[in-house]
Amino acid sequence: MKIDGLSGFIANAINQEQKKQVDSGNVFADLLKSVNQAQAESAKAIEDFVAGNGVELHEVMIAGEKAKTSLDLLMEIRNKTIDMYKELTKIPI
């Protein structure tokens, strides 16, 4: 059994941390995309219900509530981010 040196372990840990940082940068963009997708699905469900394409009323309501909830979450994240920025700008240097 071969035992790798400490340098290999450290290099692997650094690579994994860099991948996490790159992935975390896309979290907000993914959140925006999911909110947009929920809004589009809600609009499509409404259109299909009005057109009589076999969509039930409860499906329309569920899609609408999903879209509303995801938008509310996004707005709260935005508000907390703005509050955090305002608090950080108050800190004297």
Which key terms come to mind for this protein?
93 residues
Helix/strand layout:
Elements (H helix, E strand, L loop, with lengths): L5 H20 L1 H25 L5 H34 L3
GO molecular function: cytoskeletal motor activity; structural molecule activity
InterPro entries: FliE (IPR001624)
Protein name: Flagellar hook-basal body complex protein FliE
Task: Give a short synopsis of this structure.
The protein is built from three helices and no strands.
- Rounded to the nearest angstrom, the distance between the terminal CA atoms is 54 Å
Structural category: mainly alpha
In helices, the fraction of residues equals over 70%
Can you tell me the number of structural domains? 1
Strand proportion? under 5%
Q: Report mean pLDDT, rounded to a whole number.
A: 83
Q: What gyration radius follows from the Cα positions, in whole Å? A: 22 Å
Largest sheet: none
Topology as H/E string? HHH
Q: What is the number of E strands? A: 0
So what's the oligomer here?
A: single chain
Unreliable spans are none
General form: elongated
> Helix tally?
3
Describe the structure.
The protein has three helices and no strands. With 93 residues, it is mainly α. It has one domain. Helix 2 runs antiparallel to helix 3. The longest helix has 34 residues, at 57-90. Keywords: Bacterial flagellum, Cell projection, Cilium, Flagellum. Belongs to the FliE family. It is found in: Bacterial flagellum basal body.
